[in-house]
Design a protein that fits this description.
By secondary structure, this protein is α/β, with parallel strands linked by helices. It has 18 helices and 26 strands. The protein has 3 domains: 11-238, 3-Layer(aba) Sandwich (Rossmann fold), CATH 3.40.50.300; 243-308, no CATH class; 321-506, Nucleotidyltransferase, domain 5 (2-Layer Sandwich), CATH 3.30.420.240. It is globular, with a radius of gyration of 25 Å.
């Protein structure tokens, strides 16, 4: 195969990602992949990797030396970027690199919708057919387009298969490399079914690509939380706008809002790398802002890569946020006085469970319970009771705290009592002291957490509302997003500190 040399990569021209962590590797075959793609053409011309895409591909094909020979440094890779910027191009480069450079037997490309699979198939076919050397390795009739079944078959018993995602399908998609596009719609049961099937593969790798997740994107959020702090054998990269406050504290992000962060074009340029490359114009982004005028946070999520959770836009907080971030203790766990707290947003839009208790260091450990990478924070409330049913197997008789005059208490207090939990309802008069107590616990370094970005983002989003002389509480309406995790954390932390004196026991 003839490899054409691409122009040298100018890393000085790289738009730096906001977050990047990756295992150290001894060498990479990313340069070979770049050379491979340089000889291909799509409908926009030669397929030359941007510096940002090259950074991704280098991480994908990074190897380490081991006593058993070379090994891929990363088992998982997660790429988060705004739409129409760089992600799909990087995934296409990875797929072709795995077939032509790594000579893997099976690459599986999955998406939530068949239409996305068809688009990926079309794009890869166009690239392959544009290069005679690549096309020569496709079997006669190798572009398979049967109904709802797409694949490309190569010499040497190599294939790229395109499939939509279901838990049942995952068990049959045991590829050497599995590309999970549209990962914000990824279901946890898919990964649970997929992961065991990769064990027998010599060099398995799972590649996730997505724009920022919404509240229901629990598996992607778990990847984000691991990736932002660094995790063994996970390569994580995220291009997103750095959150900043709007000019007005009550900004609703409407098109005519003065000083709205969503209209800050310098923030767009922090993450919209295709603008610098000339593939997307600022005028196009301005048009998208107008298109999503009725749903401004969708624009924020898809074109500024701001997550649809309490991390969207940073707000004033009575908490020392820097101090809170520094209280991360990766090995911390609860050993005594476990308390759960439940909060449900108005109109049951969101629900969150938080656990707190004393750690071996006599700190107040706080976390959102999770199972198989799915955290107990959801859009809607359908999973609240099933989750508490599961938790009672280990924590029978535990206490669940809720605000007395809240959607959580109205909907779930009696049901939790029926499950065997003790329910503590916090009265309005006690709530301000608990809010202040959380701030004091942070100031005194009494908190321990695992670095959960959902909790930290909720703290950033929370806004205090004055309710009397030197008293305040969390204000939902003024906060920059849903703060159910913050309210539940406040309740749970107080329960762990004052758990020996139960109060307001319901039922």
């Amino acid at each position: 195969m003839t490899l054409l040399a691409p122009p040298p990569v100018d890393l000085a021209d790289l738009t730096p990602p906001r977050f990047r962590t990756a295992p150290t590797y001894d060498w990479t075959e990313g340069d070979l992949v770049a050379e491979l793609l340089a000889g291909c053409y799509d409908d926009k011309g030669p397929f030359l990797l941007d510096p940002e895409q090259r950074l991704i591909v280098d991480d994908t094909f990074g190897y380490v030396r081991t006593p058993r020979g070379p090994q891929l440094a990363s088992f998982e890779q997660c790429i988060v970027a705004p739409r129409q910027q760089l992600k799909t191009g990087a995934l296409k480069a990875i797929a072709l690199g795995k077939i032509y450079i790594s000579e893997q037997r099976l690459v599986v490309w999955t998406a939530h919708r068949m239409m996305a699979c068809k688009e990926a198939f079309r794009d890869l076919r166009l690239l392959i057919e544009s290069n005679d050397d690549l096309l020569a390795e496709v079997l006669p009739g190798g572009f398979k387009t049967a109904a709802n079944s797409l694949s490309i078959e190569f010499t040497g018993d190599r294939r790229i298969v395109f499939a939509t995602r279901t838990a049942d399908a995952a068990q049959s998609l045991s590829g050497d490399t599995v590309i999970i596009d549209e990962a914000y719609k990824l279901a946890s049961d898919f990964i649970a079914s997929l992961a065991p099937t990769l064990a027998a593969r010599p060099e398995p790798q799972i590649i996730y690509g997505s724009s920022a997740g919404h509240v229901g994107s629990a598996p992607l959020r778990a990847l984000r939380d691991r990736g932002r702090v660094g995790d063994h054998r996970l390569a994580y990269v995220e291009w997103s706008a750095t959150p900043r406050k709007c000019a007005e504290p009550d900004c609703d992000h409407a098109l005519d809002a003065v000083g709205c962060f969503l209209d800050d074009e310098s923030a767009w340029l922090e993450c919209c790398t295709a603008v610098r490359r000339g593939r997307v114009t600022l005028e196009t982004l301005r048009g998208m802002r107008r298109t999503f005028a009725a749903d401004p946070m969708k624009f924020a999520r898809e074109f500024m890569c701001l997550w649809d959770d309490p991390g969207g836009l940073e707000a004033d907080s009575p908490l020392d946020l820097d101090a809170l971030a520094e209280l991360r203790r990766p090995r911390s766990r609860i050993v005594d006085r476990r308390t759960f707290a439940l909060d449900v947003a108005p109109r049951r839009r969101f629900a969150c469970i938080v656990a707190a208790g004393l750690s071996v260091e006599d700190l107040v450990h706080v976390e959102i319970p999770s199972r198989r990478g799915e955290a107990a924070y959801w859009r809607g409330t359908a999973r609240v009771i099933p989750t508490f049913k599961r938790l009672r197997k280990r924590f029978a008789g535990a206490t669940v705290r809720m605000l007395a005059k809240s959607q959580a208490a109205t909907s779930f207090a009696s049901k939790l009592v029926e499950l065997g939990y003790a329910v503590d309802l916090v009265q309005p008069g006690d709530w301000p002291a608990m809010c202040s107590g959380l701030a004091e616990a942070v100031d005194d370094s009494l908190i321990a957490h695992l670095g959960d970005a959902t909790l930290l983002d909720a703290a950033k989003a929370g806004v205090a509302v004055d309710v009397g002389e030197e008293q305040w509480r969390w204000g939902r309406r003024k906060s920059a997003g849903d703060i159910s995790p913050l309210i539940a954390m406040t309740l749970a932390v107080d329960g762990a500190i004052n758990g020996e004196q139960p109060f307001n026991v319901w039922g």
